[in-house]
Design goal:
heterodimer, A: about 120 residues, alpha+beta, 5-stranded antiparallel β-sheet, two-stranded antiparallel ribbon, about 30% helix, globular, B: about 290 residues, 17 helices, elongated
């Protein structure tokens, strides 16, 4: 019994919630591994809150964040996260968005599209 | 019987929803102020009631405003971005962009070329597709413009990073010239963008029409000679200050010309972007002297 309690404490100590962040793109995925092409655990939409976790068991590259959404723990591109709630198309125009009746496959591909976009910006002069 | 009780429940709920009132508003109704008007005036309470009524009015008008804003079409710029992304989603299977690809570092070399030519603070998204169906195009966005490029095309021509960046730059110039929007914009989109549709059903046919125009433009119609001439001349002018870039661009057009003439898979290229052969003529110094 004692060993079970000890194990539980160690497990808890190994994970720490860094903070709650919000998802920026219109739709996206929580990935199984820290790769853009890795399978999706769940699809999330803009403004969805995610717990960013620091774990001694999971090492991620500088571009990725280890996150928890509901019961899923997975990986999201760091540049897709914001500390503040972002302004979202579906939030600004809810009735227009409802009328589109997007199906599950469209939501999935929308998330994948954001994964596949190679984003860049030219510097300020 | 069950159906009847469900109907009654729905009726009661909807009547409640329609008559939903603020708590302060209900309180004001319960008290009959007329019978104690004088006492209230002496105590200054009637002023308080008036203030409260004013507050209720302000809250109600704010509530109506918020509700109205929920029934608005996106602005024109937001609609362009939405349509571009939605078109890519609807054509995911044809374009085959959901595939694993190596990191070519295109975004860095493209940004470098843009900066060298004086284009600062420009946001862009590049989408590589694993299909020869569409060689290249630029789609309008809101904050960032979208560039699409075919990986089989890059591989077949064995293009360098600089050449890829110059293809993307030409697409950027074409988009900046406004030809894509000019060729795909619809009357319905322009009239509905940013307007309110409360009390009506959202007119989604506006989106369907726009997506059809995208399809037609990208796969069938393409750009005309005049538009191609203007784009080529514009790119020519931008690259003049950098002979290295100009020579690379001139060489690239020649490479594309030879390739599309000999490869039937890309026979539509000349129809959509008429034509590399003409571009060489427009760019050649001899042509300029005429």
């Amino acid at each position: 019994m004692l060993s079970i309690i000890f194990f539980a404490e160690v497990t808890l100590a190994e994970e720490r919630v860094v903070g709650v962040y919000y998802f920026i793109p219109t739709f996206g995925h929580v990935h199984q591994s820290a790769m853009k092409t890795s399978p999706s655990l769940t699809t999330i939409q803009c403004s969805h809150p995610l717990k960013v976790i620091e774990s001694s068991k999971v090492s991620v590259g500088p571009e990725w964040a280890f996150v928890q959404v509901a019961d899923y723990k997975g990986f999201v591109f760091k540049s897709f996260l914001s500390e503040k709630r972002p302004s979202c198309l579906q939030g600004k125009y809810p009735k227009f968005f409802d009328a589109l009746n997007l199906d599950l496959s469209e939501l999935y591909y929308w998330g994948r599209l954001n994964d596949h976009f190679i984003q860049g910006v030219t510097r300020v002069k | 019987m069950r159906l009847l009780s469900l109907f009654i429940l729905l009726f009661v709920q909807s009547s409640f929803a329609q008559n939903e009132k603020l708590q302060d508003e209900k309180e004001l109704e319960v008290v009959d102020f007329s019978s104690i008007k004088k006492v209230l005036q002496q105590d200054g309470l009637s002023e308080a009631v008036k203030k409260k009524e004013k507050q209720i009015k302000a809250i109600k008008s704010e509530q109506i405003k918020i509700e109205n804003e929920r029934y608005v079409y996106p602005s024109e710029n937001e609609l362009w971005e939405f349509a571009s992304e939605y078109w890519l989603i609807k054509n995911a299977q044809i374009l085959n962009w959901d595939f694993e690809k190596p990191d070519y570092g295109i975004e860095k070399s493209f940004a470098e070329v843009m900066e060298r030519l004086g284009f600062y603070q420009k946001k862009f998204k590049i989408l590589l597709i694993n299909s020869p169906t569409l060689v290249k195009t630029a789609l309008p966005g809101n904050e960032a413009f979208i560039l699409i490029l075919s990986v089989p095309f890059i591989r077949s021509l064995d293009l360098s990073k600089l050449e890829i960046s110059l293809i993307l730059f030409e697409e950027f110039v074409r988009l900046e010239q406004g030809y894509f929007k000019q060729n795909t914009s619809t009357e319905k989109m322009r009239s509905l963008a940013g307007t309110n549709f409360q009390g009506r059903k959202a007119d989604i046919s506006m989106v369907e029409e726009l997506l059809k125009k995208y399809h037609l433009q990208i796969f069938e119609k393409g750009f005309n000679f005049q538009q191609m001439f203007e784009v080529t001349k514009k790119v020519d002018a931008y690259l003049k200050s950098s002979p290295e870039l100009w020579n690379a661009y001139f060489g690239l057009i020649g490479k594309i010309d030879r390739f599309v003439k000999s490869n039937t898979q890309y026979k539509d290229y000349v129809k959509l972007f008429p034509s590399p052969e003409m571009q060489i003529k427009w760019l050649s110094p001899e042509e300029k002297n005429l």
